[in-house]
User: Fold this.
Amino acid sequence: MPAAGFMTNIPYHIATAGKVKLDVLNLRGEVVTTLLDHQLQPGEYKAEFYTTRYPAGTYLCRLDVNGTVDSRKIVVIK
Assistant:
């Protein structure tokens, strides 16, 4: 279990079964953490992102499902 601190849920939807990877990147495009790297079935999911060890700022969540990529911006405020 991660250390106590700030946590946010990142919801996502998978339309087709397959390999799913969810990364959090800084604005330089560097992966700061991988939240998920699994085979998943279609459905609604959420990933927990514990922000305690990351500085305040803007990050990108990159969801790759079978090679199709979607990105969303998240802001960590402390």
